[in-house]
Write a structure and sequence with these properties.
The protein has ten helices and 17 strands. The protein is of the alpha/beta class. Helix 3 packs parallel to helix 4 and helix 7 packs parallel to helix 8. The longest helix has 18 residues.
Length: about 400
């Protein structure tokens, strides 16, 4: 058959074929280039079942776009070997089976990209967070209408379009940070990231300091970090504590140094007075009642200084369209990087400005009314006082 585009949307479950019947139909379209399934998958086969679907070949397939549950996607992608240049777009919009099946979905994705890494190595990874609504209600309890999601886009060295475009959520399950952190970790554990040179983070602040080291150890060749929107304070603290543990050692063992090849950091549309959140005592997630008043740019300055002491000074730091950029902190940073670039937007020239003397960091609103009693900490000050 000469069909090149097949798009099925919102097929009622009672009308869906069995997987074997669907695959038999699909393999007749040998010229198929674009396959789109939006909640229109064949009936599910339980994950781990011995009733595996047979493999079919679609040699001309260029783009596969799937929207549904994790298991529905697994039942398709494990049966269709993909060519190296295929663009994979997946939107997991219902997460009820994530804990049970996401590992298998991530494994299938990872297997594909490992098989093509010589021909189409990944060069850039983009991680994007998104929120809808306030996290807490007027009664200071978790807001059931709060939704969040994240998106992973992976690019090849010469590709303008992503080889992988994966969106997780939003639904009721992804309202909880630990679900998103687990999904992100599963994907990064399976993808071949050793050759990735650029990591872009946009509004990704739900990952904690405890979770970042495991993610970062996969990026052995990373040279560039590009940060926009909500600053990832968990990332920065993971990097700072790691660099400080090396800058204060008397030996030269750098095998455990995170991001040893990092050269350039770009900040744009970031509030440099933004504070962070302490890690919850009950799990690897942020505590929204325990605030760290260490400002983002000041923590970054401390990290850059410790990298320099490890003889791993950055080549450049670029700051553009950011708010609350302190000139005093920039002066401290100048001695830690070879090139420092910034514009004059949101610049505070001296520490005598009102916002500087207040001492508290800035936090985005998560509460629909007055928050409960919040506990303030100053981790950076405490860390630096240990050196005195």
């Amino acid at each position: 058959m000469n069909l090149r585009h097949l798009s099925l949307h919102h097929l009622p479950y009672s009308e869906r074929p069995a997987r074997q019947d669907f695959l038999s139909l699909l393999e007749q379209f040998t010229l198929l280039e674009h396959l789109t399934l939006v909640r229109a998958f064949p009936k599910n086969i339980a994950a781990g079942s011995s009733n595996l679907g047979r493999t079919i070949y679609l040699p001309n397939l260029m783009n596969i776009s799937l929207t549904g549950t994790v298991l529905e996607m697994v039942n398709i992608v494990e049966c269709i070997p993909l060519q190296p240049a295929v663009r994979i777009q997946c939107h997991v919009d219902r997460m009820g089976d994530l804990k049970t099946n996401f590992w298998k979905f991530a494994k299938v994705l990872g297997s594909h990209f490992h098989s093509i890494m010589e021909e189409m190595p990944l060069d850039t990874l983009v991680l994007m967070g998104h929120e809808e609504g306030l996290r807490f209600t007027e009664e200071c309890i978790f807001n059931p209408d709060f939704k969040q999601s994240f998106r992973i886009r992976a690019f090849g060295l010469t590709e303008e379009d992503p080889l992988l475009d994966l969106t997780i959520g939003p639904d009721a399950h992804t309202s909880h940070d630990e679900i998103l952190i687990a999904a992100l970790t599963s994907v990064c554990d399976t993808l071949p990231l050793a050759n990735v040179h650029t990591l872009t983070l946009q509004n990704l602040d739900f990952v904690t300091q405890k979770s970042w080291p495991r993610l970062l150890r996969s990026f052995s060749s990373l040279r560039i970090i590009d940060i926009g929107g909500y600053p990832p304070t968990g990332l920065l603290w993971a990097l700072l504590l790691n660099a400080r543990s090396h800058s204060h050692l008397e030996h030269d063992d750098m095998l455990s140094m995170l991001l040893p090849s990092l050269e350039d950091v770009y900040l744009h549309n970031v509030d440099c007075f933004a504070g962070g959140l302490m890690v919850s005592s009950s799990g690897p997630v942020n505590s929204h009642c325990d605030l760290d008043d260490s400002r983002f740019l000041e923590v970054l300055a401390a990290y850059l200084e410790d990298r320099q002491q490890c003889s791993l000074a950055l080549r450049s730091l670029s700051i553009s369209r950011c708010n609350n950029v302190s000139l005093d902190v920039l002066k401290d940073i100048q001695g830690s990087v070879s090139h420092l670039l910034w514009d004059n937007r949101g610049m505070y020239k001296t520490a005598s400005s009102r916002s500087d003397t207040e001492g508290l960091a800035i936090y985005r609103n998560q509460w629909s009314s007055n928050p409960p009693a919040l506990r303030h900490y100053f981790r950076l000050r405490t860390l630096l006082e240990l050196d005195l």
